[in-house]
Amino acid sequence: MTLATRARSINTTSIRQRRKLTNSAMTGVLTATMAATIAVLVWVLGYVAAEGLKFLGPEFLTQTPPGNPAQPGGGFANGIIGSLIIVGIATALSIPVGVAAAIYFVEYGGRLARFARFVTDVMVGIPTIVTGAFIYAIWVVHFGFSGIAGGIALALIMLPLIIRSVEEMLRLVPNELREASLALGVTRARTVISVVLPTASAGIITGIMLAVARAMGETAPLLLTALGNDLFTELNPDKRMSTLSLQIFGNAITGFKAAQARAWAGALTLIVMVLLFTLSARLMARRSAISQRH
Fold it and tell me: What family, per the record (predicted)?
């Protein structure tokens, strides 16, 4: 073995050792980061569960808060119903627009699509309280506080999230599927409906459900739109409505232990509802993927 060959071999061995050390170090850093993140999450969830279970019971899900916030008992039934109604309105408004916009961005494009994508990116970064103030100025001032106003505000928050998630899922669909459909003489619109959307349905459903979960926990925009109503259960979205997030906020900032106990129970209820939405999204996405395979 020549001197040059030996030097080259030593250099190669040194590079391999350095790469292994770097890989081990980065793996250790990422593992520690993941462990710290999971530990914080478990700590938060465990603390909320420990405090919420002290008050959570069947009556909490079926009763409204007492007239006196210092009085123990009662529940957030009106907030649970209000959350479902307002988020339902927001979902009905945002899903058709969001999916249609994402389809236009990916399948058609153009200058208008690029400008609209830029506006979508800006909307993602807008604080939710600003969205609430906007709806307050254009809706509440003229029509008053209502569940509809809250639903519109949440729809604007959900819209960019749905657009971005659906857009990314559509981009993952292989172009070969589109080309095969178009080669058979199928129109582009029919190709999108019959080929592209079913193929990306699992990811689309997951993205939509995550947006719904995000809207379920919003408070700031609802303070300026739905305002809340702790006196009774309101089923008319044209009136002021309570949500779980509003009731948690209102009870948590009081100095009464009974109200704060209800806030902890409400927080646990909200976490469980968000968890159910997330699990539902996973289940529907899995079923969609299985049905496509068969």
Answer: Belongs to the binding-protein-dependent transport system permease family. CysTW subfamily.
